[in-house]
Amino acid sequence: MNIAVIGLGFVGLTTALGFCEKDFNVTGYEIDDKKLNMFVSKEIPFYEPFLKEKLNKYLGNKFRIYTNMKEVLSEAETIFFCVGTPQSENGDAILDYLFNAIGESLLNINIKSFKVLIIKSTIPPSTTKDIIKPYLEKKGVVIGKDIGLANNPEFLREGYAWDDFINPDRIIVGVEDKQSESIIKKVYEKFDAPLYAVSYNTGEFIKYLSNTLLSTLISYSNEMSIIADLIGGIDIPKSFKILHMDKRWCGSPAGMSSYVYPGCGYGGYCLPKDTSALACLSRKKGYEPNMLKSNLIINDYIKKYYVKKINKENKKTEKIGILGLSFKPDSDDIRLCPAFDIISLLKNEGFKNINAFDPISNEIFKNAYQKLNINYFNSLDAIVGGSDILVIVTGWQEFKEKQYMFKNKKVYDLRYIL
Q1: How many domains, in total, are found in the chain?
Q2: Is 264 a catalytic residue?
Q3: The whole model's pTM is what?
Q4: Which portions of the chain are predicted below pLDDT 70?
């Protein structure tokens, strides 16, 4: 079976190479020239363990990238859409890029042979049923006869994406015609995981159910840390670590306990966007989602809380060193990262001497947020030496292992890793 993947970002590239690993022939489509040039050089535009190695292994062999949609789709039986659905100003999901990709695909599909359009992009519940399906039908397509339609949400953690794809704990497919269901089951029969074929809306909802739970756990933990700090006399990290000893929790680093732990807020591409999108959808349906609303408010407030604390306890002339710029360790993703908000808030409070260091994200952060006008250091040793105060924003293992370097410094451990 031949598979096409539209959009070769974090999800798309992992999906394409993962299917190659499972012995499929995959064609990929990407419109970003910068990404395309990097792929030609067998480089990837973001940090993710194993992907560069797999790109080098499969590119030009089982994996071929085209800039012409017709070539991409010519032999594909299943077409996976992995196009970004970013957040709008009001918190809703922007679907324009996805519909552009679907529209271009329709112009290049030969419907004489049945193909399944599979939406892997994260889309709010009811999108497939109420928006995508009617859109296709207006184009004269009969779902289940001319082409198939399904959604197949991804559950890829940045830093663990390869293993999450190759060894999933479950596979969810929102599909409502038997032919499409049969084809998708054939695609995933090489994966050792249960596959659940559910309705369109259920497939989409499970993704949001997962991400909003994770974001809620983080905000809950941060609210508890604020209360504990205000009460005083409470060992916050020890309290949470003892909480994790409850046998109902998984104690592994990648388990649920990593979410029920205080910090300075969640960031990245999924949790903020999906929590906002589901809250927006709920309001459209006539219900004010108070828990999700509070979740988002706390995620915003936790950063303001720490900055107020730093401002109260220090002079504006102090040199502040920000340790960590990516939204999480083992990733170079700086989208909606807490570091940006914290640095911006510190500057608004009048702190002018702000330094920053991240093991892998310095240049990406610098290019994305040029207006911040801060100083960047290339090593932990350098930033520690050049700063009066250290603020740990990302829980990199290096900071924990080398905490002896902070001995004579005032440290704000916003991730409670020390």
Answers
A1: 3
A2: no
A3: 0.87
A4: 250-254
